[in-house]
Amino acid sequence: MTPAPNTVLPYEIGRFESGGLDLSYEVHGHGQRTVVLMHGILLDAHVNRRLASDLAGLGYRVVLLDLPGHGRSERPRRASFHRMDAYALHVEALLDHLGVERAAVGGVSLGANVALFSAVRAPERVQALVVEMPVLEWAIPAAAMTFVPLLLAVHFARRPARVLATAFRRAPRSGVGPLDSMLNALSSDPVEIAAVLHGILAGPVAPTVVEREAITAPTLVIGHRSDRIHPFHDAEQLSRRLPRAQLVAASSMLELRMRPERITTEIATFLDRAWSPPTARRQVGS
After folding, report:
1. Cα torsion angle, 146, 148, 149, 151, sign
2. Radius of gyration of the chain from Cα atoms?
3. Is the pLDDT reported for residue 239 higher than 50?
4. What pLDDT is attached to residue 164?
5. HEC sequence for the chain
6. Which member of 62, 96, 177, 256 lies 3.0 to 4.6 Å from 52 by CB, making a disulfide possible if both were Cys?
7. Is the pLDDT of residue 281 over 50?
8. Cα–Cα dist 36/68, whole Å
9. What's the pLDDT score for residue 144?
């Protein structure tokens, strides 16, 4: 949802053009080190605002990108705009727009996979990766069982879906990032939802195993054991395959959103090390 006129926000909202689309982003903080974070499927920047605020308070400039079809960004109704590997092109375009040579790139679920594609496509632009709840091989059956019925519902029951979306658009927002992000998702037009789901399901979900093993950026992988779409086994396997990865186990998918202190500290420590010069890293480990 667009903020009310004259609302003073604790972050900046910007827009840029990429691949013929008008995309939106938020900037939290003004540090020299830039972190780009992305949301999960059908969600938006709200879901990462608490983390962005906390990292900004530690001296980072955190940019929350709304991918096509999400948040304030343009919502194309063609599935070809919504492949995960195509989303990665917009990350590179965002860095160009911001004049940033290298950034830490990360996200949750969909955003985590887009970050992996970004590291494969433009490794020279990725200082580090923060990959929360990646969706890899072990997740595919559960993801298909969840999103294929949803795709069919918004496609074949478009009229009642639009009625529900209108009702959710009128619902007041709580100020709680993850909840508001979910309400915004439920407020989306069913044709837009169908395009996003169709594109993501039709395209590659993640880089190949060979491509993943070639990622050299330091990577923090965050996983949990609480749901089948984000099985902990995927997070474990990813951390083992990437040559410079470490794994952090969350108690649930909500820990970083509702009780973020422990994992935020892990992320901040990881990012500090990723930006430290090699000599400083050797001193820390000595």
Report:
1. positive
2. 18
3. yes
4. 87
5. CCCCCCCCCCCEEEEEEECCEEEEEEEECCCCEEEEEECCCCCCHHHHHHHHHHHHCCCEEEEEEECCCCCCCCCCCCHHHHCHHHHHHHHHHHHHHHCCCCEEEEEECHHHHHHHHHHHHCHHHEEEEEEECCCCHHHHHHHHHHHHHHHHHHHHCHHHHHHHHHHHHHCCCCCCHHHHHHHHHHCCCHHHHHHHHHHHHHCCCCCCHHHHHCCCCCEEEEECCCCCCCCHHHHHHHHHHCCCEEEEECCCCCHHHHCCHHHHHHHHHHHHHHHCCHHHHHHHHC
6. 62
7. no
8. 15
9. 85
Task: Please tell me the distance from the alpha carbon of residue 7 to that of residue 165, in angstroms, as a whole number.
Answer: 25
As given in the structure block, the two tokens for residue 147 are 């999103």
282: which residues sit within 8 A by CB, 6+ positions away?
none
Confidence band for 282, pLDDT divided at 50, 70 and 90: very low
8 Å CB contact between 135 and 229:
yes
Mean pLDDT in the chain? 91
Taking residue 172's Cβ as centre, other Cβ atoms within 10 Å add up to 7
pTM over 0.90: yes
Domains of the chain plus CATH, in order, are 12-140+202-275 (3.40.50.1820)
d(CA 275, CA 273): 5
Query: Helices 261-275 and 49-56 meet at what angle, rounded to 10?
Result: 50
Which one, of 134, 130, 133, 132, lies nearest residue 62 by Cα? 130
Decide the pairing of beta strands 60-66 and 21-28: antiparallel
Percent residues over pLDDT 70 in the chain: 94
Sign, CA dihedral 249-257-60-74, equals positive
- Position 89 scores a pLDDT of 97
